[in-house]
Amino acid sequence: MKRRLSLDTGQIVIRGGKKEGMMVEDRLSSLPDELIHKILFCYDMKFAVQTCLLSSRWKLVWTSLPCLNFSSRQFHRLDKFAKFVTHVLSQRNHQIEVSTVKLRFHAGVNQDFVRKIAEYAFSHNVQQLTVFGPSSCRHVYPSCLFSSQSLKHFTFTCISYTRLLITTEAPLDFPSLTTLNLCNIILSGDVFSKCLNLKNLTLEDFYVKDMEVCDIITPQLSNLKIIDGRCSKSINVIAPQLQNLTVINCSIGYLNAPPILSSFCYTFQLWPCRLVQFSNDRFHSLNKVTIYLSKSKDYPTVLYKEEDARMIINMLQHIHSVKYLTLDADTIECISSFPDLLSQHSSPFSNLICLTIDYSKKKDALIVTMSSEARNFFLENSPSATFTMKLPKTTFFNPMPTTSRRNTPVGIGGKAVGIDVVWIAAPISTTCRLHKLRQD
Predict the structure, then answer these.
(1) How many other CB atoms sit within 10 Å of the CB of residue 178?
(2) Which residues contact 123 (CB under 8 A, 6 or more apart)?
(3) Which pLDDT tens digit goes with each residue over 262-274?
């Protein structure tokens, strides 16, 4: 049984089978334009324009789309793609504002072509702009792409091995921008100071060029993510409103962040990256901290070094004010490997409400251990803290008494049971939460 859309009535005519010739209501065409626009935005603009052939109802739908999604994937040559985009921009309803533009290049980039799209979008008060494209000396983006009075959300991703260079000679000029995502770029100088209303900033796969200190000056910034960043010296975050900081696999000499942070999420590799060092003394009001040690795939079996544990302990001392602390099993294993080093430090945590050890991603061992020195380091000064262990969905932890005095479990109130315990994974449940351990 086949169905065919009638160009005259907008109804679906069934061909073949017992229901031959039956007219079925075209529900899609009866949808309001606002919903159809959202559906079409899931596809590229070429598909949206082709819908004009369906019926008279669809003839002009694409001309009023507020969201434009251009992709060169369907075009073999850039000039063909440029001609199509020019046709769309010239034929659309100019009374309709442009709220969102997605521009994806899969090969070359023409500067005049990009300028035409940017100027059209900005003249129609575009709110959100996403650009995916190559970057090299042959693919230069016009400066107008990085300057707009109306833009609120901007994502720029270089999809080639050559990063886009953003310098102080051509800083980003987005006074209304609230969210900025930059991927595969080079930073040189203060490039964010004209983004006065920026609240969310993500920098991914970037490095800092020819600078002792990279300043990120954003007076309204509240959320900062830096991922796979490289900076031989230091990054200075001047953001008095910053609340949430996420750092993932960055090789940075020093990171100077505001002391008023509320949330800090840190994922790092000891090899080949180095641990981020904080240039300020302490964070004063941390509510939640998550720290994960991500072993490199190239060095899965490398033994922990005392210097690794020393750096982790130093970082933990900076987050002494935290209330909810989550650590992965590898971090615990690293510092527990050097009990003498831990015994040299008193517990910095006096406000700790909950300590969580995340074992859910650890697949190379079944036994989780924590030295008594590590237990004291975390819980000695937080006698009412709760200990929680997150396990893989198919396991639970069974307490097994041992005669060894080396490994001791963590308990509420920093108390340990009279004999040492090793927690061993066994199939069934998902979470182990210890509310109280009685002292024998």
Answers:
(1) 19
(2) none
(3) 999 999 877 655 6
